[in-house]
């Protein structure tokens, strides 16, 4: 892969972000201005200059000013919890000097109330519900310098774990499942995906299980969730190894495109991480088999990939294969990473796009987008991760790392 070509793309992405960043009206990390700022800080480190980081600070000032002036959307994806995650992350990555304990603790009660409210109605959704708040509070629990705040965040997390346990249902085999409600149709099902479903539950349980204080309460749920998803794995010759969801009557639906949000790629990644926590070699072999199948889906009719975005496009796929290659050193995953980076470059063909890129919307429309999840910010961060001689960890906001 040509470093020169990738750096030219970074320059175009940076120029497009600086021209269009004001289009981001939300505050969050995945869809919002705080997430866009992440590119500026990491690009500044990559270039070893201050100007991009200064621009990132300017973006975050707009976010904090907006919150002070009454911006009140709380979620992780596009709200205050996501903005708080970014500030905490930047401090821990030594990309910005900020006293997060003083600043972020002012948001605790509001975000805790939002988390409890969502859990009370069964909304565990990662992007727009309780898992997102829990990931934010877990980051604060890990990073705070205050023992008092650490105890408070621990209490919040124990509460989340208890809620998650109460919401769980056992299937006929003793595995655990959670009902999800579609935000538009209000249809109830057992969603298996990472962005909105049980793979997201596995992701947060994996992270909680790495702490001795939470592990006794989370490991049983983790095993139950893994067992439920694995029970729906199809044969290796299937188009997609997992359905998108299971209806209440047991019928399965949805052959997933390749991507972070739904399907075998996000599921396989979380099963791999679960296998490490559970020290389960059989599960690890199973997860690698799933991911190898995903790596084989490179033709357009097998991947169904239309655009380059992180959510379900070329660069997001590349980022997952990059992480799993670093974990396993399996050559097939390195090859898949290289393929999807090149595929992302090849998709910069829209003359009226941002840096040549647009995302595809299911309403038969191409749209230019700045955000991390669905736009050029995420694409730029993936390219930086690919090129940099330093370790990046921005993809923790997607539970990729």
3D shape: globular
For the CA atoms, what is the radius of gyration?
Answer: 20 Å
Percentage of residues in helical conformation: 55-70%
What is the ordering of alpha helices and beta strands? HHHHHHHHEEEEHHEEHHHHHEEH
Q: pLDDT average, as an integer?
A: 96
Q: Major sheet: size, sense and barrel closure?
A: 4 strands, antiparallel
Structural class designation: alpha+beta
Q: What is the β-strand count? A: 8
Widest sheet, order of strands: 3-4-5-6
Name the poorly predicted regions: none
Strand content: 5-15%
Terminal CA distance: 23 Å
Number of helices: 16
Record the SSE blueprint.
Elements: H1 3-20, H2 33-47, H3 51-68, H4 80-92, H5 100-104, H6 108-120, H7 130-143, H8 147-167, E1 169-170, E2 176-177, E3 180-181, E4 188-191, H9 198-209, H10 215-230, E5 243-247, E6 252-255, H11 264-278, H12 281-295, H13 300-303, H14 314-328, H15 331-346, E7 359-361, E8 365-367, H16 376-387
Antiparallel strand pairs: 1-2, 3-4, 4-5, 5-6, 7-8
Helix pairs in contact: 1-16, 2-3, 2-4, 2-16, 4-7, 6-7, 6-8, 7-8, 7-9, 9-10, 9-11, 10-11, 11-12, 14-15, 14-16
């Amino acid at each position: 892969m040509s470093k020169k070509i990738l750096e030219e793309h970074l320059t175009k992405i940076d120029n497009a972000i600086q021209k269009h960043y004001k289009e981001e009206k939300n505050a969050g990390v995945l869809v919002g201005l705080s997430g866009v700022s992440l590119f500026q800080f990491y690009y500044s480190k990559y270039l070893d200059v201050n100007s991009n980081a200064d621009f990132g600070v300017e973006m975050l000032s707009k976010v904090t000013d907006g919150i002070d002036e009454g911006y009140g959307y709380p979620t992780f994806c596009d709200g205050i919890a996501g903005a708080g995650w970014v500030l905490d992350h930047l401090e821990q990555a030594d990309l910005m000097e900020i006293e997060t304990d003083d600043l972020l603790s002012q948001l605790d009660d509001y975000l805790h109330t939002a988390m409890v409210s969502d859990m009370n109605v069964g909304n565990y959704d990662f992007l727009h519900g309780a898992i997102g708040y829990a990931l934010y509070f877990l980051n604060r629990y890990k990073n705070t310098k205050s023992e008092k705040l650490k105890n408070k965040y621990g209490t919040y997390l124990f509460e989340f774990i208890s809620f998650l346990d109460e919401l769980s249902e056992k299937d006929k085999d003793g595995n655990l499942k959670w009902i999800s409600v579609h935000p538009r149709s209000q249809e109830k099902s057992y969603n298996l995906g990472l962005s909105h479903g049980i793979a997201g539950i596995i992701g947060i349980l994996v992270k909680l299980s790495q702490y001795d204080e939470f592990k006794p309460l989370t490991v049983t749920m983790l095993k139950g969730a893994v067992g439920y998803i694995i029970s729906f794995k199809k044969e290796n010759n299937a188009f997609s190894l997992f359905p998108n969801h299971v209806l209440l009557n047991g019928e399965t639906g949805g052959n997933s495109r390749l991507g972070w949000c739904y399907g075998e790629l996000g599921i396989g990644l979380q099963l791999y991480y679960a296998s490490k926590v559970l020290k389960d070699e059989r599960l690890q072999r199973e997860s690698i088999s799933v991911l190898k199948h995903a790596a084989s889906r490179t033709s357009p009719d097998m991947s169904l990939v239309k655009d380059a975005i992180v959510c379900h496009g070329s660069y997001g796929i590349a980022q997952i294969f990059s992480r799993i290659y670093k974990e396993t050193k399996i050559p097939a995953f390195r090859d898949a990473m290289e393929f999807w980076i090149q595929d992302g470059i090849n998709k910069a063909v829209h003359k009226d796009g941002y840096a040549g890129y647009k995302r595809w919307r299911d309403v038969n429309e191409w749209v230019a987008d700045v955000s991390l999840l669905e736009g050029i910010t995420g694409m730029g961060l993936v390219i930086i991760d690919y090129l940099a001689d330093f370790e990046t960890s921005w993809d923790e906001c997607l539970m990729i790392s």
